[in-house]
Structure formats: structure tokens, C-alpha cells
Amino acid sequence: GGFKRSTTYLWHRLRRLPDRPQRIARGMALGVFLSFSPLHGFHFIVAALICLLVRGNVIAAFVGTFAGNPLTTPFIALGAVGLGRRLLDMPGKITPQFIFGEFSHATAKIWGNVLSAVGPGPVQWDGLAEFYHEIFLPYAVGGAVMGGIAAVIAYYLTIPVVRSYHQRKARQMEERIARVRAKGPIITTAPDPDTAKADPESDDPQG
């Protein structure tokens, strides 16, 4: 339920973005595309940087990266690695557990090497080359194909949704302005002090 509410909020937030539909759609498409990449933990950062280059909406890119969430990432990873290995003519099947196990192992190795630059720990690169060729490269190739298809779909779905919302808000604003104009100007006049003094029914503080 919490995930559904978060998704609904992000979708409504996307429609309400004060930007042109094409810029919002570009940001959305970039976020969706990067969510199919093996750059786990850096999807939004990379999408935001590319958005600045292609003039996309950064907030829309952030929303788009949620295409790769804890529910969909295992399926994305398995599909991307499988497709990439077929395109690269690499034999054998790989399970999701093996994929994420290798990602965890490679991440620990990389962080250990980074920390060894400022500490006494040893630098260990063993296994990273195999991880790159067996997992990362196929993931990148397959993810580029799957992400490209998903990005195109997201782009052409986002434009009419955002445009329809903006048009509806514009009509609502026009209707409000028309209602205010139909009521006419509200004119208020201050009472004439001479008339107020001459009024026999006015309150006389002295009786």
C-alpha cells in the first residue's frame, strides 16, 4: 500500500510540473532508460547530468528512475543480462541470485580499493574483470535495448498526459476569470460625513 501511494504521488507530481511537456517527457524517458542500466545507486545522478545536456526536466528524470524499484529490478536485471548475453553470443544461464551476489561482491571490492587509497588496506582487483565481462557488460547491452524501448514508450505516453493536465488547468483558470468578470466590479463608497451628521436617526453620544 505504501509503495502504491508513493507511485501515485510521483505520477501526480509529474503531471503538475510547471514545464513544457516535451522537456518533462525527455526527463521521464531518461530516468526510465537509466533505470535499466547496471549503474545501481547512480541512476538519478547520471540521469540528472544528461538532463542538463539535453534540456530535460530533472524532477521528471527523478520520477522516471523509479521504474527501477525493488519490485522491478530483479526482473530488469535478469532480462537485461539474459538478453545481453544472447546478443553477445555468451552461453549459459544466470539466476537473479547470482547476478546480485556478483554485484554485491564487486561493490565491496571497489569500495575496499577506494578505502585502501587512504588507509592500510590492500588493493584487490581479482574477479572484477570476470564480473565486467560476465555480468556488467551483458547487463549494459541488454539494458540499453530494453531501456531504449521503455524510454520511447514513456516519452510518448508522458507528453499527452502532461499536455492534457496543463490544458485542463488552463481551462479552469479561464473559467475562474470569466466568473469573476461576470460578477462585475465591486464598488464601495465611504459615507458622507455631512450626511452622517444630518441624519436624525444617527446615534448621538450626548443624547
Structure description:
The structure is a single chain. The chain is an all-alpha fold and 207 residues long. The chain has eight helices and no strands. The radius of gyration is 30 Å and the shape is elongated. It starts with a helix and ends in a 9-residue tail after the last helix. The model has no long low-confidence stretch (mean pLDDT 80).
Q: Using the alpha-carbon principal axes, give the shape.
A: elongated
Biggest β-sheet, characterized?
Answer: none
Instruction: Output mean pLDDT.
Output: 80
Taking the alpha carbons of the first and last residues, their distance comes to 72 Å
DSSP E strands, number:
0
Structural class: mainly alpha
Beta percentage is under 5%
Unreliable segments (pLDDT under 50, ≥5 consecutive)? none
**CA-based gyration radius:** 30 Å
The level of helicity is: over 70%
Order of helices and strands: HHHHHHHH
Q: Helical element count?
A: 8
